[in-house]
Every structure is written in C-alpha cells, then in structure tokens.
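Researcher: I need the complex structure. Ligand is 3-isopropylmalic acid. Inputs:
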Amino acid sequence: MDYISKFEKLINEQIDRVKMMKQQGDFINYDELDKLIIGVVGGDGIGPAITAQAQRVLEYLLADKVKSGKIEFKVIDGLTIENRAKVNKAIPDDVLEELKKCHVILKGPTTTPRKGDKWPNIESANVAMRKELDLFANVRPVKVPEKGIDWTFFRENTEGAYVLGSQGINIDEDIAIDFKVITTGGAERIARAAFDFAKKNGKKRVTVVTKANVVKTTDGKFLEVCKEVAKDYEGIEVDDWYIDIMTAKLVDEKRRTQFEVMVLPNLYGDILTDEAAEFQGGVGTAGSANIGKKYSMFEAIHGSAPRMVEEGRDIYADPSSIIRAGGMLLNHIGHVEEADKLFKALEICNEEQEHVITGRDTGSTSEEFANYLMKTIEKL
Ligand code: IPM
Ligand code: MG
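Model: Output:
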C-alpha cells in the first residue's frame, strides 16, 4: 500500500471511531445488574502472583456478595507475553472475548515489547485494552498529605499520540511520520469526567495541561473543548498550563500544593503522572483506574519484573500496588466502605510493619502480607 492510501485508511478508521463514540450510551449502572463480574487478569512476570493475592483480599471483603451470587470473580489467563507473541497480537482474540464478558477488570502488569528485545514489536497490551474497551479516562490520584499534595490526574486514555502509536508511516528511508489525534468528543468526555470529579469532591480548580502554543491543532482543540466544558461548572475555576512549565511546577514546593485536578492528553498524562507518583514513593506505589462507559479496568502501574520470576522470587513480590488498584475498583463499583477499610488497613500495615516485603526470602511472601492485611481489616 502506498502511503497516501495508508493515510486515508487511518483517517477513515478515526471517522468510524468518532461515529462509535457518538452512538455510545451513558455510563453503566452497576446497581441494575443481576450479577457483577470482576475479571482478574494476572498478566506477565510477577503479575499472576500478586494479582492472586489482591483477588483473595477482594473476595474476603466482598464475601457476602460472592456468596449470594451478586458478584462473581472470573480469572482470565492467557494475557502473557509468550502467548501474545505466539499469536502476534496485543490481546489474543479469545482473551479479548473473555474480557468483554466482565464489567470491571483487575489487571496485573503486562510486558510491553520494545524495539530490540526478544519479542515481536507488538502493541502494548495496556494500550490495546484501553482502546478495545474504550477506557477513555485514566484516573491517577497522588497524595502526600505531609507535603500538602492531593492531586487527581485525568489522563485522556484513548487518543493523542497513542491512538496511532504503532501505525506511523515510513514514507521512505529518510522520513518517518507519526500521528496525533484529538477529537471533540474524546476531549469533551475526559473534560467532563475531570469536572464532574471536581464538583463531587469539592475541588475548586481544574488545570488543563497541553502544549497548545506549539502543537496548535490537536492540543489547541483539547484546550478549547476543556474551556467550553468548564462553562457548565459554575464555581470551579479552569486554568491552563503548558506541559513544560507544569513539569517544573510540580517540584516547586510553594506552587504545587495549589493544583487539585489536572486534565491532559495521553502522552503528557503518561509522563506527568510518573513524575507525580515519584513524590509519593515511586510508580510502584500508584494505582490507576481506566474508566469507560461500559467497562473499567484497574491496574498497578509498575512493571512485570521478569527477573524476579527467573530467580524464583515472585512469591516475595510486593502486592500493595495491585491491592490498592483493587481498592479503587471497590470504590468504583460503589463498595466505598470496603474500599475505605482496605486503604486504612494498608496504611496500618505499612506503619506497624509486622510483615515487610523485601522482594527476597529475607522478607515476607505476598501471601503472608495479604493474610496480615486481612487480619488487620478484621480488627477495624
Ligand atoms: C502507563 C504505562 C503505559 C503507558 C506503557 C506500559 C505502555 O507507562 O500505564 O503509564 O504508556 O500508558
Ligand atoms: Mg506510564
């Protein structure tokens, strides 16, 4: 295919995506379901080991609902890098079919192949899942109370530099072109998610982060749509920042405490949330919610640590981050009390340190940590 028809095909796909977005209904209402299905996807490396522990904790907290058949856990295997490489797909068809039978998903880390490693250069399973299930809002909270930091990032999750990230075009051996896409509907739904969150949580300010002074067309649209949406939210201030200075201001101790809710296109969100998580103790401490109208997925944002598995240490991996993602899942499906208990118990366990995870046999196993956590919850 020559590059012009390739480009035409990409544009047509985007037009179809916009049509699909326009046809979408409202958010699913979990209260109306006979049975809510929670998919558990272990992923790669240490993923299955830590995700199994998070599942135990969730099953413990939701025991009544599981017993009465209102909630069912569904373990989905096969989202491993070996399997993905074998079928040469970011998400094997049978796995995707299983995912679509769930309402919410708890997902362990998945290895993302990169140029030069032993895996075929397939798309990241995270990115593919966000696109396939249309999980447009990537919500990443970062809190460091003693430093006055309480941020919630709303990263657009299905567009920007990611949507055609593996479909760039090599025009000839000299010219490589990638694409960035922002749509009105795509920008509007993430902006509304951010402002709705601000309104519900008594936040006074939503900060839009772009590079609209340079990337004028797409970032320009993103910013314009966010400002338009802001008009529907009286009492919430909107301000706009460029990503470069925003990155700097997050290390400015005097200024950074003034930010509350940030809304930003995909790639800026990817970068800024890693920086933000670092203040909280690193990306390993952060959980991430990927919310769509029909499906939602909750994940730990650290890697799959294949070396730990090679050295037989996966049973010693730290499950806190995926357990925290499980807490976000509980909140999302309306089990706020259970989520509060979980977060509280995590805090207590981290303080008391009766069981410490070191990643080796010098510390506790993830199973022991999960047991300790459940015992702590029982005492609350
Ligand atoms: C994240 C990760 C992913 C992303 C990678 C693994 C593709 O960095 O969830 O932030 O870039 O979105
Ligand atoms: Mg990232």
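Model: Summary of the prediction. The longest strand covers residues 137-144.
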